[in-house]
Amino acid sequence: MSRYRGPRVRICRRLGDLPGLTRKKSNKQFPAGEHGQHTKKPSEYALRLEEKQKIKFNYGLNEKQLVKNIRTAKKVQGSTGLILLQILEMRLDNTIFRLGLAPTIPAARQLVNHRHILINNHIVSICSYQCKPGDQIKIKNTGKSTKLVKTYLNFPGLAHTPNHLELNKESLIGKVNGIVEREWVALKLNELLVVEYYSRKS
Description:
single chain, alpha+beta, Ribosomal Protein S4 Delta 41, Chain A, domain 1, 8 helices, globular
């Protein structure tokens, strides 16, 4: 399955607030579709599927990428759900978004793909790059790159920068000071249901 490129607000109406996907809000209270106003109690499978869909759409992952990240998380000692979230939060595209250098993760991904981003003074064009404590994130020193990011800074996607990151808005230099803590994950979901979803499929 390829990355979703359809209407974003429609997805948010169904799954709830997805800060990484879009800043737009819908005034409609019911999920999209002809059955959106039905309030039938969802099954346990439907609940697990919904949490999985939240992660996929918020972080812009396809099924193969999400499965790969879950397998990686299972190999690390600790809570698989928390480690999965940390892996996704420390991706380069999400880190740029959380620094406020882009209003959404798709916008951050575009900055990376178009080679506007430097990590430790080297251009990195891989969105899934795992940022590490000590990494320095800079905007390429060109008029086009700087102008674009300064425009984004005036309309940040989220109000607060998480405590593992810091940004100098004058020099447009960000720093990674640690690994994200669970309380700073902006997406509201139960990550254990995502792990359960894939555990039951395997």
